[in-house]
Amino acid sequence: GRPAPGSYAASTSDYSTGEARPTERVASPYPTDDPILSRIGGTPLVDYPESGTGGDIALKLEMENPTGSMKDRIALGIIRELADDGRLAADDVVVEASSGNTAGAVSLVTNRLGYDSVLTTPAGTSAQKIGYVRSLGSEIVECPNVDSDDERHYRTTAKRIASERNGVWLDQYSNQLNPTVHYKWTGPELWEQAGGDVTHIVCPMGTGGTVSGIARYVTEQSSDVHVIGVDAQQSNISASFYGTDPGPYDTDVEGLGKGHELPTMWFQYVDEVRSVDDERAFVQTRRAAADHGVLVGGSTGAALAVARDVASDQPDARIVVIGCDGGEQYFDTIFDDSWMQERGYRTE
Ligand code: PMP
Fold first, then answer.
1. Where is this region: Disordered (predicted)?
2. CA distance linking residue 293 with residue 310, whole number of Å
3. Interface predicted TM-score (ipTM)
4. What are phi and psi of 316, to 5 degrees?
5. 69 lines ligand 1 (CB under 6 A)
């Protein structure tokens, strides 16, 4: 439930040591003088007290990146790594395939750095996500929603466009720079903010880049940290992780797995993958807004559900949850009662 009026102001509780977490920005491995790109990273880590649980939960607000998700980090980091290595020339076209937040992130970064860019998207990509691409001036190629072995698939199309136009395909679904950017950036940043006082990391998994990079970094700092990847019940990442039979790919939660293990998932650093059903992810997303005043997307709702379970089971837990994107993109879906009811989800 909601806190009593004034209870936050009066509270002296703090996630880490009783001292305030650092509010100054943690150094970026990709420093830049650009006034917009320098706003990527350095996102806040805020207390997220769940009543009725013993453990502490802190939420990392990745929606405070300029285009509203942690994907701004990989767009900037991958492009910088490729450019520094001589694999991306100034007049090369940057190409990426994305149904979601990566599209806007790549559009922003290429806009600021002066690269031409092409984004391929599958049919059904939300108007809001396409809006970033259009308004920031990237070229958009909308592809039919077909199986991944069909040559019209949005990833296959991105690969083809990159070769036809002598471009560079970022390929977040297999590029090792995706987890590497989080290993160099998101991991150290949250570790420093939490003063190393972390027992659990809970992070949604799509490409697995975010959880993998963070997991590798925190595991190198302390072998005691337990890293939990979060998946939708019917998106089958946990089936890959545990070697069980996958079911049909069928989730309404944007951002979570695409059905199987990917090279960007460094399972060796991840301790556990927990699956959350779509309804629970959405109910938790709505509670985050209604009870905590925090607007998050459905993948973060799924992670908050897992964090709540851990905090209930382990009163000493000090949990960091990665909040991947904000709720503003989901007003006409998760936060819309009729959208929820049409799909048979509770609207509590
Ligand atoms: N949540 C949202 C909203 C996302 O857009 C993504 C990216 N697909 C994820 C979670 C998963 O992040 P990652 O690809 O790094 O595993």
1. 1-49
2. 22
3. 0.99
4. -90, 0
5. yes
